[in-house]
């Protein structure tokens, strides 16, 4: 796996709202060497689009042995994470939490900090990407066989695992390097959290997994949701919350049990096929546990609490109950664009992930770094870039239809988009908005199986902004477009391209990258 500063998850980055943040990244990945980059998920990068950390768009990958320093503003406050945006590399460990402190009117006593849930694969990520890109129509993408909370989890060694969900065991045998086999440990330590009785705790929940949807809860407690992604919302109370990949939720939990209590924190891991009702029952549908101990609890004993199964829906909470705290009504008279997500077969018989009939292929050597100072006058027009130029439109509605029977977490860079409406199976959008004066805003929203989401963004952040499914394999598979707005207002510093591309061009000239 991959570590950042010798840690997994990587170190917590903390800032105050408005701070400038500098992060110097050295790519020391070896055996096999590969590129990297870090993306600051959910930050707007207003005026600094080239710091967005996306190889093939805002930079070249940082070549092995090279160093690059990011410098950007913490222009959103709340809870998020940074992660590699090179292939599906983050799923193998290249991520960490980022918290930006900002104003809040809410009362709580203890900031517990990040609670990162993730699925975990015991197979090198590049093997999974390779499998996903070449598997035939009778196969489904892999499911992870285990999960983690803040980097720790316990795996049941009796499971017929290690990629059991690969339908093609020959493929696995020939691609899964035996030198990377490990011995299974049944009793790995779980993450532990301490609660103070009578106090209110703020937990910063985030799903930084590859493809698992996660329904989070703590036995014996309810939680009050106060922010979704980077947007404070009018508080509402629930017993569990759905976290699609890369979604965050800040919740307040009051420790109202006795001081000797202990409880399970659990995140029910649901795979997309399960969510769509298509998986064989019980496959990849299991809780990930961490331990919550009150101040006088005996921490040598496991919690004994049990809970009835919470909802297994993989949809986000209904948008009529998730309204932003601060009202910013959407612009009227936006430009409309339909986007349809489909899975089709390509000419080699493998799955292909397309938006409006086109799959995205990043060109890591030719990022979309418009550099007028270098004499560049236009962007590449090859259809593989999936570039949607919204020119000088000031507001854009994207009506995103999901033609697959699985849910998908749709993320857009550089914006908190409005979620105008969400619909389930077979219901096309009728053009209406659920809370017209104050629709939910966030940066990731789950599109239900065979359903739609209608989102709107204000084109007030000049640049080129990826919009993609955050399922790691779908991102690699090409379910991705580049949204371009107000290109005439975008000025990239002269020479920016060279900072990463010179070394990357030289390295790729000597090494084959697939
Ligand atoms: Cu979490 Cu394209 O990013």
Automatic annotation (TrEMBL):
Gene3D superfamilies: Cupredoxins - blue copper proteins
Top-rank taxon: Eukaryota
Stored Pfam families: Cu-oxidase, Cu-oxidase_2, Cu-oxidase_3
Gene Ontology terms for molecular function: copper ion binding; oxidoreductase activity
Residue ranges of domain Plastocyanin-like in the record: 2-102, 114-268, 374-487
InterPro entries for the chain: Cu-oxidase-like_N, Cu-oxidase_2nd, Cu-oxidase_C, Cu-oxidase_fam, Cupredoxin
Keyword Isomerase found: no
Keywords: Copper
Keyword Protein biosynthesis applies: no
PANTHER family with a match to the protein in the record: LCC1 (PTHR11709:SF145), MULTI-COPPER OXIDASE (PTHR11709)
Homology family: Belongs to the multicopper oxidase family.
Designated name of the protein: Laccase III
């Amino acid at each position: 796996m991959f570590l950042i500063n010798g840690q997994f998850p990587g170190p917590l980055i903390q800032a105050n709202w408005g701070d400038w943040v500098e992060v110097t990244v050295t790519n020391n990945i070896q055996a096999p060497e590969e590129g990297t980059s870090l993306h600051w998920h959910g930050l707007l990068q207003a005026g600094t689009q080239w710091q967005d950390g996306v190889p093939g768009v805002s930079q070249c990958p940082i070549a092995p042995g090279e160093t690059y320093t990011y410098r950007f503003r913490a222009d959103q406050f709340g809870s998020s994470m940074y992660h590699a945006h090179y292939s599906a590399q983050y799923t193998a460990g290249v991520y960490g939490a980022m918290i930006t402190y900002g104003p809040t009117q809410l009362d709580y006593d203890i900031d517990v900090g990040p609670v990162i849930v993730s699925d975990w694969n015991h197979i090198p990520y590049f093997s999974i990407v390779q499998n996903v890109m070449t598997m035939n129509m009778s196969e489904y993408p892999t499911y992870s066989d285990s999960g983690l909370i803040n980097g720790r989890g316990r795996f049941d060694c009796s499971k017929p695992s290690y990629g059991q969900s690969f339908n093609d065991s020959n493929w696995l045998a020939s691609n899964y390097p035996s030198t990377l086999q490990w011995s299974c440990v049944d009793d790995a330590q779980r993450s532990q959290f301490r609660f103070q009785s009578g106090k209110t705790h703020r937990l910063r929940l985030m799903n930084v997994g590859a493809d698992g949807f996660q329904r989070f809860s703590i036995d014996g407690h309810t939680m009050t949701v106060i922010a979704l992604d980077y947007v404070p919302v009018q508080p509402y109370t629930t017993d569990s919350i759905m976290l699609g990949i890369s979604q965050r939720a800040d919740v307040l939990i009051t420790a109202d049990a006795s001081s000797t209590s202990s409880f399970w924190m659990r995140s029910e891991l649901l795979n997309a096929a399960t969510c769509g009702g298509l998986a064989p029952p019980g496959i990849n549908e299991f809780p990930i546990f961490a331990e919550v101990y009150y101040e006088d609890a005996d921490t040598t004993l496991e919690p004994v609490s049990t809970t009835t199964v919470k909802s297994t829906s993989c949809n986000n909470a209904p948008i009529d109950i998730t309204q932003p705290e601060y009202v910013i009504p959407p612009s009227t008279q936006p430009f409309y664009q339909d986007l349809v997500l489909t899975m089709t077969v390509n000419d080699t018989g493998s799955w292909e992930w397309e938006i409006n009939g086109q799959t995205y292929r990043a060109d890591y050597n030719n990022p979309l770094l418009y550099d007028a100072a270098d004499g560049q006058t236009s962007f590449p027009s090859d259809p593989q870039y999936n570039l949607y130029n919204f020119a000088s439109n000031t507001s854009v509605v994207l009506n995103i239809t999901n033609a697959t029977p699985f849910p998908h977490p749709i993320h857009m860079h550089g914006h908190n988009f409005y979620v105008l409406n969400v619909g389930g199976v077979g219901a096309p959008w009728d053009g209406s908005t659920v809370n017209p004066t104050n629709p939910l805003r966030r940066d990731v929203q789950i599109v239900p199986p065979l359903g739609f989401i209608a989102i709107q963004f204000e084109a007030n952040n000049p640049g080129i902004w990826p919009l993609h499914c955050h399922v790691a394999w779908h991102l690699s598979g090409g379910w991705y477009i580049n949204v371009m707005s107000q290109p005439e207002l975008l000025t990239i510093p002269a020479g920016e391209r060279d900072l990463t591309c010179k070394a990357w061009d030289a390295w790729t000239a000597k090494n084959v990258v697939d």
